[in-house]
Design goal:
OB fold (Dihydrolipoamide Acetyltransferase, E2P); 5 strands; 22% helix; single chain; alpha+beta
Length: 149
């Protein structure tokens, strides 16, 4: 069955609200998988690592987490980390796999090591960023680092 546009178009436009922002701070996350994409403007290749939040760091405001709906609601969001794949930026992908995911890189190719990131536990730092020239603010993974422990 196709999309029921009548149901969508019959809704009051003034009731549409953006989803709540993930509170700023550090989170534990698990890599669910990856996909290879191109940026929309310059067609720059990148690897997107899809994540699931599994824990909340001490630097995250507890009241904001509760207002969001708690860890359960956070785990239902789909944050991601994008790493560009150009001659000038491939070193960052290598550092992510080696230093953040703590996987052996050696003389292996990216197509051999990237799939091994799935299931790896990492930490991420989430920020909130406003798109220039708009009022739209969204949550974004600013950086990733290994699990401290």
């Amino acid at each position: 069955m196709g999309t029921n546009f009548q149901n969508i178009l019959g809704q009051n436009a003034g009731d549409a609200k953006p989803p709540p922002l993930i509170p700023i701070g550090t989170y534990q996350a698990t890599i669910l998988g990856h996909e290879f994409l191109e940026s929309s403007r310059k067609k720059t290749p990148f690897c997107r690592f899809n994540l699931r939040i599994t824990g909340v760091g001490e630097d995250v405001d507890e009241e904001e987490v509760e207002a969001f709906g708690g860890l359960q609601a956070l785990s239902e969001r789909s944050p991601h980390l994008d790493l560009y794949m150009t001659d000038k930026t491939l070193f960052m992908l290598t550092e992510f796999v080696r230093d953040t995911c703590e996987l052996e890189v050696g003389d292996r190719t990216y197509d051999a090591i990237i799939p091994e990131t799935t299931g790896q536990d990492i930490q991420i730092f989430v920020i909130q960023r406003t798109i220039e020239g708009t009022r739209r603010t969204f949550s974004e993974v600013d950086r990733a680092f290994p699990v401290q422990g």
